[in-house]
Specification:
The chain is an alpha+beta fold. The protein contains 4 helices and 7 strands, in the order βββαββααββα. β4 and β5 form a beta hairpin. α3 runs antiparallel to α4. The longest helix is centred in the middle third of the chain and has 21 residues.
């Protein structure tokens, strides 16, 4: 469903619960061990917070393709259907972005940044449209006006702030995300 600087993310089914879709991050076993540990530590502190893509387990395996074998590390996460980030959502949506969508995204990110501060997570450190996931509407999750709540999730809490990189300012990232959406809002709606 996606890739980044370090690895790839695939949609998979859990072997013990075949109807449970999960996201599996694959990275070369030699890469970014500190980043992976950093991300898991942060997300574990946020395990009770809705809107955070939650971690389930980690491991290593060898993958063979066309006679080439490579050892990879994997981590298993919530899969947010249909597997799209905010950048792809905006690209795929014609000029139909509602102002309420902007409010939902900003409110969710602010809620998670508040939880980070209260739970001892210094910062996300890499907030951008590629790390905000947009799920399909869920009729079972309604807002205060009894409308289906926008399904907004924050992901990737670790890789952007390790290996000597200076963490990005979370509120600058939020401003950039907001500006990307504002440019596309259909103000008549």
């Amino acid at each position: 469903v996606g890739s980044g600087k370090v690895g790839f993310v695939y949609r998979a089914h859990d072997r013990q619960a075949s109807d449970w879709e999960v996201a599996v991050k694959l990275t070369p076993a030699s890469e970014q061990h500190d980043a992976r540990q950093n991300e898991i530590k942060k997300v574990s502190k946020l395990s009770t917070i809705p809107g955070v893509v939650h971690f389930h387990r980690i491991g290593a395996s060898s993958i063979t393709h066309n006679g080439h074998c490579e050892l990879v590390s994997y981590s298993v996460w919530d899969y947010i259907h249909p597997g799209r980030d905010l950048r792809r959502y905006l690209a795929d949506t014609a000029n139909e972005i509602r102002a309420s969508f902007l409010v939902a995204v900003v409110e969710q990110i602010l809620r998670i940044l508040h939880a980070c501060r209260k739970k001892g997570v210094v910062r996300h450190g890499d907030l951008h449209a590629g790390n905000i996931l947009i799920g399909d509407p869920d009729e079972g999750d309604i807002d205060a006006s009894l409308q289906p709540r926008e399904q907004v999730y924050v992901s990737d809490f670790g890789y952007g702030v390790t290996g000597g990189k200076v963490p990005k300012d979370d509120y600058r990232g939020l401003a950039d995300i907001s500006n990307e959406i504002i440019e596309r809002v259909d103000w008549a709606k």
